[in-house]
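Annex B. Sample input.
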Amino acid sequence: MKIRSEVYKELRDRLLEKMPDLQYVDLQKGQFDNKQKNYPIPLPACLVEFKQVQWSESTGGQLGDCTISIRLYIDHVTDSFNGAEQEEETIKLLDNLDNIYENMQGYSGENFNPLNRISDTIVGYGERYVCYQTDFQTTLFHDDAPQKTGKIEKVKFKF
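Annex B, continued. Sample output.
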């Protein structure tokens, strides 16, 4: 069983269901880091990334302690200084970190435990966007352990 793809699809579907304004959800592949090689991505957009997984043995498979990062990219073309035309709308951009938390915290799937937020931050500002990142800790379940292979030494019996 290929669990990461299944976990990704569950996360993608949850994001699209709970955040209907999203125009684009994809795996993080550096789409915003190399604009020349990527097609224009509609905003708002979410990119999902699986960080390093620490695996441990369990009965019938393995458990993986994993961090999943969700990056939210939204339009950022207004000002927030006192008296700006769209001051209040711009300040509300900060609430996007809370939106990711409120819609994903505690969510679980067939192959992963409930998500638990461990950090969030503003990653950066692009030409027309701001990027927010929320990291969640979870445990992945890989139940169908592959068959162990290896050479079996010949047994020499003594009578």
